[in-house]
Amino acid sequence: MDYIANTLANLAAESAFSTMTYKEVIMICVALLFLYLAIVKGFEPLLLVPISFGMLLVNIYPDIMQEGGLLHFFFMLDEWAILPCLIFMGVGAMTDFGPLIANPKSFILGAAAQFGIFSAYFGAIMLGFNDKEAAAISIIGGADGPTSIFLATRLGQTAILGPIAVAAYSYMSLVPIIQPFFMKLLTNEKERKIKMEQLRPVSKLEKILFPIIVTIIVSMILPTTAPLIGMLMLGNLFRECGVVRQLQETASNAMMYIVVIMLGTSVGATTSAKAFLNWTTIKIVILGLIAFSFGTIAGVVVGKIMCVVTGGKINPLIGSAGVSAVPMAARVSQKVGAEADPSNFLLMHAMGPNVAGVVGTAVVAGTFMAVFGVG
Which of 150, 253, 270, 320 has the most Cβ atoms closer than 10 angstroms to its Cβ? Predict the structure, then answer.
């Protein structure tokens, strides 16, 4: 009987119930909420399912993120900035840069959306974060998870990498909820109904030269952006050159999904109750929301200005796609425009600012790295 009693006691002591507090229960409930949003509501399940499941695992079994734990090895690839760069390669291989090439004015809208990053930077300074912490936090405003992870690791801000990554990916997933409010608030029905002219055809030569030229120009000016911009443009070159179809298919499918699994679960696993439920995290999440909101607002406002300047040829809704959540933000522009006029098709027009936003966020990250002397 003593043997049985001791065995049961040991099993009870090793169970999660013996160490679980109300904080872990809260985080488990948050993980289940995220799973509900991903599976039932369809909010970017490719991101939210692995993130929320990693969150669930770490709050039941914290050792899974300790040194030697399964997800710790995944997270090391985040810290070494390997997974973010591979994500960029996959995005490049999946994305048609034609709309941006056909309408270079899209770069203006992509640049405008970066306003949210700088607003969050100064906000973080005011809340007591140091300059490197503020820079790492502010990049959330670009709605770009890989760049947020890349910059935080390069600036040595691994202590707050978890909250930054979760906030960035959460806001990427919640683009369909957050953006439409500001888009409708800042535009009237007439503006939302504006139909844009069909984009000019882009030649194959233009599509091949574009990633090469962008890589040379941006990397020469800001060499610190080379890992992100280089991988983004390499993936796009795989897509457009037409002679490495196997590489393009691998980068945009098998490799992309493998990396998303590892990155998503490891990011989610940084949200242990002990590390996540504190005032620092709360401030980061709030700053991220402010940054993302300001980026959306700036994009729409500049879109309205361009609408006036061009005599009503630009629908201001595409300005919201200047954040670099590809292609989610462009889809939201299409959705809101179609609500005003079902025959309106804005998706390809919105993809221009969307791609420009990816480049813009990477450039801002490289600028911060250059300012702080980080190579």
Answer: 320
**Whole-angstrom distance, CA of residue 41 vs CA of residue 18:** 34
What is the CA 19 to chain-centroid distance, rounded?
34
Listed residue (148, 122, 144, 128) closest to 136, CA to CA: 148
- Whether residue 285 contacts residue 123, with contact meaning beta carbons closer than 8 Å, is answered with no
CB atoms within 10 A of CB 187: 25
Distance, CA of 16 to CA of 64 (rounded, Å): 13
Burial of 128 (0-12, 13-18, 19+ CB in 10 A): exposed
pLDDT digits (tens, 9 = 90+) for 229-276: 999 999 999 999 999 999 999 999 999 999 999 999 998 888 888 888
- CB hemisphere CA count around 99 (13 angstroms): 23
For residue 223, pLDDT beyond 80:
yes
Amino acid identity of residue 217, one-letter, is I
